[in-house]
Amino acid sequence: MSAAPADSAPTSSPAPAVVLRDVTRQFGRFAALRGVTAEFAPGRMYAVLGDNGAGKTTLLRMLVGLSRPSSGTVQLLGASDVRTVREQLGYMAHPSLLYDELSAMENLRYFAALYGIADPARCAAIVSAVGLDPGLARPVGQYSQGMRQRLSLARALLHDPTLLLLDEPFSNVDVGSARAMVRVLAGLRDRGKTVFVITHQPALLEGVADEFVWMEAGSIAARTRELRPAGAGS
Q: Are 40 and 88 in contact (CB under 8 A)?
């Protein structure tokens, strides 16, 4: 009997980027997350949707290590201790975490020093990647909201994270800036990064996100490949 061709051997699926097992997060008597169990594959973009109070921000804060589950387990990039993979995480919260009196480049150089990034060209490259001018000396306090959000995204991308977690990155952003940010995120996903985006503007990610994750009352109510009509699953 002849041996089977080498290329006929079964290939194993990549390990999940995120694994949640019966995760609950209590704040007093209020359960922000209720027994969430899910796996998320690497190299995909997930749009996390739902009404205010559905548990979206709590979920992202738990993934980035700013909050711990009251019960259950969280595994990121194969590690059960978020601290061991923290340098592989990029997080964009509601606050921009930018210094208004500094320029874009001064902000990024400061954060680059915190990350131990010595390459002086990295800051200019990442500012350009989000559609801003590295030569602009204007203080960030004089930026439009769209420019601030782009720079906040640049800060989250500065250290080339494997897993990117974004909480309402398009909030109060003009359509042009939002679409430019979506193109950046799609490019990152295409490079193998795993991207989670909380948004109340899911239409921006239609045709771009690999999966829409619908949350309701602290649970994942549905996961769909296509964007549902407004209000569905939430």
A: no
Per DSSP, what are the bridge partners of residue 196?
46, 165
- CA distances in angstroms from 53 to 20, 33, 58, listed in the order given: 19, 10, 9
Residue 227 has pLDDT above 80, yes or no: yes
CB atoms within 10 A of CB 21: 15
Q: Which domains does the chain have, with CATH numbers?
A: 14-97+161-224 (3.40.50.300)
In which band, very low, low, confident or very high, does the pLDDT at 96 lie, cut at 50, 70 and 90? confident
Checking if the pLDDT of 48 tops 50, the result is: yes
Token duo for residue 67: 């909050």
Q: Give the model's confidence band at 233: pLDDT under 50 very low, under 70 low, under 90 confident, else very high.
A: very low
Is 93 in a helix, a strand, or coil? coil
Three-class SS of residue 19? strand
Taking CA atoms, 33 is separated from 55, 57, 61, 80, in Å, by 6, 10, 12, 19
Instruction: Write the DSSP symbol of residue 206.
Output: T
Asked if residue 228 has pLDDT above 70, the reply is: no
Mention every residue, 6+ apart, whose C-beta is less than 8 A from residue 85: 76, 77, 78, 79, 162, 163
